[in-house]
Description:
With about 350 residues, the protein is mainly alpha-helical. The chain has helices at about 5-30, 45-50, 60-90, 105-115, 120-140, 145-150, 155-180, 185-195, 205-230, 240-265, 270-280, 285-310, 320-340. It has one domain (about 15-340): ABC transporter involved in vitamin B12 uptake, BtuC, CATH 1.10.3470.
Amino acid sequence: xxxxxxxxxxxxxxxxxxxxxxxxxxxxxxxxxxxxxxxxxxxxxxxxxxxxxxxxxxxxxxxxxxxxxxxxxxxxxxxxxxxxxxxxxxxxxxxxxxxxxxxxxxxxxxxxxxxxxxxxxxxxxxxxxxxxxxxxxxxxxxxxxxxxxxxxxxxxxxxxxxxxxxxxxxxxxxxxxxxxxxxxxxxxxxxxxxxxxxxxxxxxxxxxxxxxxxxxxxxxxxxxxxxxxxxxxxxxxxxxxxxxxxxxxxxxxxxxxxxxxxxxxxxxxxxxxxxxxxxxxxxxxxxxxxxxxxxxxxxxxxxxxxxxxxxxxxxxxxxxxxxxxxxxxxxxxxxxxxxx
Length: 340
């Protein structure tokens, strides 16, 4: 007698395996592609040189430059997609994404203020992080009561959503104000940061640690997220600590968004369309949805960034513009399919 969980588990393993291969392929593609192409045959040799700490060949130097950018794109995309899955579970709304609560707008206010003050790159990152944390704290203060309880189904979530929208509007007003008084010389970098740009983004350990911790938390909460998605009203009677789950989802998705925005600026649409596409392709089970969204989000942003730096090379486009151009029609298509 076959256990019904086995085919399901096998299918989950297959899905995650295929997406892992896609992730590796997207990173290889990013390494090979550019104004100077690196043949696939030269990559193992270049990687060996880099592992030994020898530079030298052009292929090795190009791979080193492109790999750090591609890995930053991957961790940013993965964090945004995971934050999207969590926001959608928290608000029980498939249209929720990491930016809907204004966390990214808060980060933008911090970063643009630092850029306006001609701060160093490190200070810009710190200011972005401070802005994101500040908005998260305000959100939590305003919607604290709804978080703690079972969020009497829809009322609490719409309260949180409304608070986020209003805070986001306030941040956008501050951003407009700063852009209007910024001197010409600083305007370009400020606008690129707002749209989302990976040029010159350094490869850092912190975003990987944040993504790893967020993924671990999400996978541990996956079963509870499934129960809340299906039986929101009776989740507490089924033994789910709804208040704790809501708080956890809120804080972890906030930290993931802050980490992504600090690395790459406001890259839109990844946290909205990737969880949708994964739900569409692999079903609504969070145990499969969470790892598949992280891998698909990372691969998607790596490919978008490769496009951004090669379409009109040597000039580079902001990656946020590419994700929006691809994301908008894809999202409209998904919405249309949902209606059907």
